[in-house]
Design goal:
It is built from 14 helices and 20 strands. By secondary structure, it is α/β, with parallel strands linked by helices. Bound molecules: D-mannonic acid and magnesium ion. Magnesium ion binds next to loops.
């Protein structure tokens, strides 16, 4: 079998997606997600100009060798653009191998280690009442674990608040929040860490009082605190027994986590912007995190993320794969297959895609009793309707950025 066609499909049904579509001379089709939010076209160029010419005529069964060929052969390794491109190839090859074998990918990865995947959804609100309504709506939709994001008095627009979309007049805003805004330039948001630190513990107290002690609650600090601020928040949230506090400090300074660990037992999740096992190596070995947030789409594929999670398992660190709407249905399917097979599965993020997206990508996964399952279709279980995709051309969209009151740029 040989790869004899490689297409890079760009579509923007509810948001931009980049998908690699490989076809073999025996007619098997493999899909791979290469979506890098706000920088999509850079990956398109990397794939079209540099990777596709290398794939034609190759044996699709040689997944590991192809991965090494694209990683070592590039000379210039790592980084979000390179690793998203390699990830798409890796996913597409696993998809083809599953179809050729007549098996779902999780069976190729060692079979199912559980019935399904506990998943969490995004509840948010500018006010506590709005937040409570959002939590209730998630419970009604079957979620059994919920991420809590709240507005902060005095701040106009901050990360993770779905209703801000409605304020900005987005016609088809759902309860989930898509951070990348269509338009020629990124939106500026304001931030004040001290105001956030004063406000958040009270919100978690209110949520626990309203919804009880058992419901797993998560929060995303979204890279905004200094190490000592993160230590303080982690400590003050301990009474509310969080499932995890995510991205509490910018991830470049990994030593910061030693200081956070010294002060709090709140579990820490890190890594959605990481691209290789090397980004995780030290914080795993030093037991500085409890959950690996790496996504198949941004970590170079199923092949390297499985190796990273197998390494994490030695330290009893679990998976918490990134799953917002900018991970496409193909990337989500790959995460579900990997999550079902590994032993050290923790939880899966699950922001639901929009209706147009679900028409472009037909998916075989199931969602029941708060758990996802990738389904038992051969391969990844996703079909891309290229004609439907063609209806939605790429639309420039940027993630917002942050400025403090004095105008200083801050992590968004
Ligand atoms: C977030 C993401 O879901 C999360 O944990 O950190 O929504 C993130 O902001 C986006 O993926 C950025 O594209
Ligand atoms: Mg996050």
């Amino acid at each position: 079998m040989r790869i004899d066609k490689a297409e890079v499909v760009v579509t923007s049904p509810d948001r931009n997606f980049v998908t690699l579509r490989l076809t073999t001379d025996e007619g098997h089709v493999g899909l791979g997600d290469a979506t890098l939010n706000g920088r999509e076209l850079a990956v398109v160029a990397y794939l079209k100009e540099h990777v596709v010419p290398l794939l034609l005529g190759r044996d699709p069964a040689a997944i590991e060798d192809t991965w090494q060929y694209l990683y070592r052969g590039a000379y210039w390794r790592r980084g979000p653009v390179t690793m998203a491109a390699i990830a798409a190839v890796d996913m597409a090859l696993w998809d083809i191998k599953g179809k050729a074998a007549g098996m779902p990918v999780y069976q190729l990865l060692g079979g199912a280690s559980r019935k399904g995947l506990l998943a969490y959804g995004h509840a948010s609100g500018k006010t506590t009442d709005e937040l409570f309504d959002s939590v209730r709506s998630h419970l009604e939709q079957g979620y059994r674990a919920i991420r809590i994001q709240t507005g902060v008095p005095g701040l106009k627009a901050i990360y993770g608040i779905a209703s801000q979309g409605a304020d900005a007049g987005d016609a088809d805003v759902r309860y989930d929040h898509e951070p990348a805004r269509r338009g020629a330039l990124p939106m500026e948001e304001d931030w004040d860490t001290r105001a956030y630190l004063r406000h958040l513990p009270g919100v978690f107290e209110a949520v626990r009082n309203e919804f009880g002690p058992e419901l797993p609650l998560l929060h995303d600090g979204h890279h905004r605190m200094t190490p000592i601020q993160a230590a303080k928040l982690g400590k003050e949230l301990e009474p509310y027994d969080l499932f995890w506090l995510e991205d509490c400090t910018p991830a470049e300074n990994q030593e910061a986590l030693r200081l956070v660990r010294q002060h709090t037992t709140t579990p820490l999740a890190i890594g959605e912007i990481f691209n290789t096992v090397w980004d995780f190596k030290d914080i795993i070995r030093e037991q500085l995190i409890d959950y690996v947030r790496g996504a198949v789409t941004h970590m170079g594929g199923i092949t390297p993320l499985k190796k990273t999670l197998d390494y994490a398992a030695m330290y009893q660190i679990k998976s918490g794969m990134h799953g917002p709407t900018d991970i496409s249905p193909v990337g989500m399917a790959a995460a579900m297959h990997l999550g079902l097979a590994i032993h050290n599965f923790g939880i899966q993020e699950y922001m639901q895609h929009g209706s147009r997206t679900n028409e472009v990508f037909q998916q075989s996964f199931t969602w029941a009793d708060g758990m996802l399952h990738p389904g038992d279709e051969p391969g990844l279980g996703v079909t891309l309707d290229v004609d439907e995709a063609g209806k939605y051309p790429y639309a420039q969209a940027y993630l917002p950025y942050n400025r403090l009151h004095d105008g200083t740029m801050h992590d968004w």
